[in-house]
Amino acid sequence: MKHEFVARHLPIAAFASAEADLVGDERLARFERLLEETHGLGAETLVSYAAQGAMQTDAAGVDEPWMHLKAEAVLPLTCQRCLGPVDVPVSFERDFRFVATEALAEVEDEESEEDVLVLSKSFNLLELIEDELLMTLPAAPKHDTCPQAVKLQVADPGFEDAPEEKPNPFAVLEQLKKAPK
């Protein structure tokens, strides 16, 4: 009997034991924090993902649940040069190992190349995908070449500069000294 796995409530141990695959697309609107980064644009943009479960034997001979996960999307962000919209491809591909407790995950995550997470009977895979995509966002998204010339002036054309010659402060003091008392 083939088990149907759901990304929002993934039983990690069963998923890994079955060496199952889970492939899907979700609308960006389902990823609240990612949608905030796009300022509400692109709610219908698809986030594609693929997860594969596996059991691997550790050094002590104990089987541990693993998951290989990758995801990608093209997000409409704001260009930091021209402040216009720019489509930025983001993606990741990573392995995750699952352990029994949070304390064990903290200790082993420091020593491991792979990410170590806590085993859960109802793991939300979409939250993990969102976390990982958020970490891949560029600090300053920008076009390779902006579609419009970038305005590099500080002042508007109607702005009048201050007079070129400033009065000498000592001359002003001299005028004050000469003023009638």
TrEMBL record:
GO terms for biological process: ribosome biogenesis. GO terms for cellular component: cytosol. The keyword Acetylation does not apply. Transmembrane segments: none annotated. Pfam families: YceD (PF02620). Residues 159-181 are annotated as: Disordered. Plays a role in synthesis, processing and/or stability of 23S rRNA. Belongs to the DUF177 domain family. This is Large ribosomal RNA subunit accumulation protein YceD. It comes from Rhodoferax saidenbachensis.
